[in-house]
# Entry
Amino acid sequence: MTTKPLFPATVLSVLCACGGGGGTQQPEACIPVDLPTATDPNAMGAVVDSGPECVGHTNGLFTSVTLCEPGTSTCQTIDHLLIDTGSVGVRVLESELALVLPAVTSTSGRALAECTHFVDGSSWGPVRTADVILGGEFAVSLPIQVIGEGSYTLPANCTGTPINDFKTLAANGILGVGVHLQDCGADCAQPTSSILNPGLYYECSSAQTCTVASVPVAQQVAHPVAAFPFDNNGTIIQLPSVPADGALSVSGLLMFGIGTQPNNGLGVATVLAVNGQGFFTTTFPIGGTGYTSYLDSGSNGLFFLDAATANLKQCTGGVKEFYCPTSTAKLGATLSSSSGASTTIVFSVANPSTLSSEAFAFGNLAGPMPGFPLNPSAPGFDWGLPFFFGRTIYTAIENQSTPAGAGPYVAF
# Structure
């Protein structure tokens, strides 16, 4: 499936369980993988495996999140939330939630719900309040989204194929740890009559009646890490490299804070400032054309350009969303920001048919991304999970102070 939500205002949030599409394969054997243990309170284990219930999720980076009824010790740990640097907020499937979480309400006192738009569908569900525990860190009374149609009927103007259950999401939820403080921001606080308001949020007077609402940022689905009392300026994802033909699973870490503890310093990482939409520039090939680009751990491949521009053959059949070079292609690109910082990288694109059928973690899956994320006639680069293997990736949150200055930026 393709799960890339585009918020068409000043904030672009990207969530992708499978990049250009087709994010799962049928597992030949179901082998549960335990999360690695993190010894530091500002860290938690992360794993790339076959997904919840061994659904066969390719290149999905998962962790477990503990939710609590606010101000109580009534809590539930939910496994296999997709770690996504391209979106913001905690989102959990309604079918997985056993807690009774209070509704977040509008200024008129009505319960709020949200329609999160994707390229090929939408996720709908109420906005609730929960205490959120990640590793040894916690966020109190955080607005989260509960994905599902059990509470409120899907509005007619929440268009697109519904992505509201386990079958369509192929995960138990999403842990969005991108660069923004909220999933929409100031635009969703504009009057509903304003063209700036993208119409993501709704207020509901009954199970059948929900209308587009203006929602202050304090009531919007929020970045859980920014709500921590400490280590709240960003996140770090650490993953090892994987073999050329893939790995059954990969264990890593999700860490909180940048330069706030002995274990989360920037070191010699290259810092790339991103604009208000989370974008920087990729020049491809080296010395060639500059394209809009972003880092997105929620995408299961490197998605860029089109077959003709990339000079790569596109696959057909069940893997048509990927490139199928005759032999593994070695490519180079330069990543840069408006501040003048830049770095050159080398990456590989393999033919999916040559990779292990028993693996779920691949560092060389890639496919086309013509016309996304901004302009249908302007292709770009989505540096998905394969980019994260073998690297330490920093994501600094907007307006939060760090040793390299205030976010937003990415670094590696």
